[in-house]
Amino acid sequence: MDARFTDEQDEIRRTLRDLLGKRCGPEELRAAVDTPAGHDRALWTALAGQLGLPGLALPETCGGVGCSVTEMALACEETGRALAPTPLLATAVLAAPLLLALGTGAQRAGLLPRIASGGLTATLAVPGPALATALALTGLDRRGEWAGGGRAGGVQARRAGDGWQLYGQADQVLDGHSAQLLVVAAHTGGFARSRVLLFLVRGDAAGLTRVRQTALDATRPQARIQLRDATAELLGDEAADALPALARLGGTAAACLAAEAVGAAGRVLERTVEYVGQREQFGRPVGSFQAVKHRLADAYVQVQAARSAAYYAAWAAASRPPGEETACGLALAQALEALRRAAAEGIQLHGGTGFTWEHEAHLYFKRAAGDELLFGPVHRLRAHAADAAHVFEEAGT
Q1: DSSP of 359-375, one letter per residue?
Q2: What are the helix and strand counts (H, E) for the chain?
Q3: pLDDT, tens digit, for every residue of 58-96?
Q4: Among 2, 23, 113, 220, fewest CB within 10 Å belongs to which?
Q5: Mean pLDDT in the chain?
Q6: Across 168-193, average pLDDT
Q7: CA pair distance 42, 20, nearest whole angstrom
Q8: What percent of the chain has pLDDT over 90?
């Protein structure tokens, strides 16, 4: 493994940081999250047109840039720094890899170039609060019972002529209220032989109702999806096994989320250090007090360690060495913990202003807490990694 970044990778990070610095300040961020879409459409168009960000990790044959998961993770680090209000995670990290891995030739040709150009947004919808389980981040469900298990509840699929119809509900769907394409996990077949397949549902499909939910993290909008005999198209063919594909996606998603979290943690820590160097108490800067120095130093060490783990996870997600999923899950746990620590210190060390709605510190803390609710919590990420690595098994068992 070569830990150095290439010139191309450095250029991606530098260009993206410059663009977000100009287009994604605090005022633009707050304005974007208050729109019906929950993100800045103009910013998304610029990221797609100038940088090809939605298709960064898609092959050139599909209209993408042809980079790897590593470059996508580095891009996520920069969007995390700015808490950029875009559908990047839902579209490029969660949905696009599934379309690439399982889609038919016609589906890939018809959908992926549109995603790469920024003209089509997509997301992954799984029943209930089961996204982390579906991605095998906090457990391994070989039967897909998180999707409903063939019983009432979840999302059920049945044939309707030459197509399919879906019935059920999915909560906590990232950008589900605005995505133009939904990749929905659903059970098909009778209870004894039910299995999970993935289906494509257009945003304007008959029988589809979606409502934006009030989320803890306003910069990460979520929706409740209701399907009442909604028209759907099978992703790939019936021989495709969705569960392994979702588990493989989990490693990629964890690496990108870890990089995003360390980007956010690094930014909120930078702002805190800058502030305590300017704010004075008892005639001297607050940052000159030893107790404050120690707290910031501890947070800095934690963020840097999380950054190293996130970079390794990004490399592992692209190279897929043995234990890749474990490394990615542990990196995500470490990054979320670092972000929560850095944001909490930022709120407290900013004093009274850090607790106000107008300040941005609480947005970073809510990002950490919201991501834990969606993809964690941290202790379950670590417990699953330990189980996968057989840490607590006795020798010879």
Answers
A1: SSHHHHHHHHHHHHHHH
A2: 13, 9
A3: 999 999 999 999 999 999 999 999 999 999 999 999 999
A4: 2
A5: 92
A6: 88
A7: 12
A8: 78
Identify the residue whose tokens are 């934690």: 302
Residue 124, φ and ψ in degrees, nearest 5: -105, 130
- Among left, alpha and beta (phi > 0; psi -120 to 50; other), residue 139 is left
Are residues 182 and 200 in contact, defined by beta-carbon separation less than 8 angstroms? yes
* pLDDT above 60: residue 245: yes
Nearest to residue 11, comparing CAs of 60, 62, 64, 65?
Answer: 65
- Any bridge partners for residue 65, and if so which? none
Is residue 127 within 8 Å of 147, Cβ to Cβ?
yes
User: And the tokens for 334?
Assistant: 């470490």
Average pLDDT of the segment spanning 167-182: 95
Residue 81, classed as helix, strand or coil, is helix
Phi-psi category of residue 282: left, alpha or beta, with phi > 0 → left and psi -120 to 50 → alpha? left
- Contact predicate 137/332, CB 8 Å: yes
In three-state secondary structure terms, 183 is strand
Q: Residues 381-396: pLDDT tens digits? A: 999 988 888 787 765 5
CB 366 within 8 A of CB 218: yes
pTM value is 0.94
Q: Which two tokens stand for residue 257?
A: 């989320």
DSSP for residue 227: E
68: helix, strand or coil: coil
Chain center to CA of 349: 29
The whole-angstrom separation of Cα 344 and Cα 303 is 13
* Relative orientation angle of helices 7-23 and 41-51, to the nearest 10 degrees: 150
Q: What is the pLDDT of residues 290-317, one digit of tens each?
A: 999 999 999 999 999 999 999 999 999 9
Q: At what angle do helices 290-319 and 324-349 cross, to 10 degrees?
A: 150
